[in-house]
Amino acid sequence: MAIILDMDGVIIDSNPVHRTAWSIYNRRFGIETSEAMQERMYGRRNDEIVRDFLGSELTAEEVREHGAAKERLYRELMAETMPRSLVPGVREFLERYARSPLGVATNAEPENVDFVLDGAGLRPFFQVIVDGRQVHNPKPDPEVFLRAAELMEVAACDCIVFEDSLPGLKAARRAGMRTVGVKTTHAELSDADLAIDDFLSPELDEWLRLQIPRR
């Protein structure tokens, strides 16, 4: 059985800082970021968000430049709070399941992945890391999860995905994987096979023990 974790909202409770960063960044261009815009941001890849917020007519290079600038701002803001922004219990969870194949599959930029996993000292736990630039199609397409399973040499049906976003859960289901919803971003995740507040939730380990490989 392999375990695949999304990053934002699963390993690190970063969405509040992403919200702040987008609000500050958009204001530079005279755009006030509404709650509806923030909701659309969750679980999406940067190129999609930039075109949504700043204009679909942007060139690919302009999209990259805007995305990189916003993520630099995000990292500046998150640097002050990152150690205490890890989702409660995640480090201990990774220690408990260190003998299982562990992977990260995220829409995030590779610079953000490095920032979080290296900054928090979590990279050694993961055999496989797939970021948003390593796949053609972002979530809710299942490509990122299927790629992680392929690299771990584990069948998709034998993978359990931890996700906080609705597009992420949809992608995992499309990949034929079981799902654990982490309620950092949404209070209700009814489509997940199991929904938890964080990695300290007492039902998590018991539920995982009941999961058996599917053949």
Describe it:
Helices cover 45% and strands 11% of the residues. It has ten helices and six strands, in the order βααααααβαβαβαββα. It has helices spanning 15-27, 35-41, 46-54, 60-78, 82-85, 90-96, 110-119, 143-152, 166-174, 203-210, and strands at residues 2-5, 102-105, 128-130, 159-163, 178-182, 194-196. It has a six-stranded parallel β-sheet with strand order 3-2-1-4-5-6, sandwiched between helices. α1 (15-27) crosses α4 and α3 crosses α4 (60-78). 40% of the residues are buried.
In short:
With 215 residues, this protein is an alpha/beta fold. The chain is built from ten helices and six strands.
Task: Set down the secondary structure blueprint.
Blueprint: E1 2-5, H1 15-27, H2 35-41, H3 46-54, H4 60-78, H5 82-85, H6 90-96, E2 102-105, H7 110-119, E3 128-130, H8 143-152, E4 159-163, H9 166-174, E5 178-182, E6 194-196, H10 203-210
Parallel strand pairs: 1-2, 1-4, 2-3, 4-5, 5-6
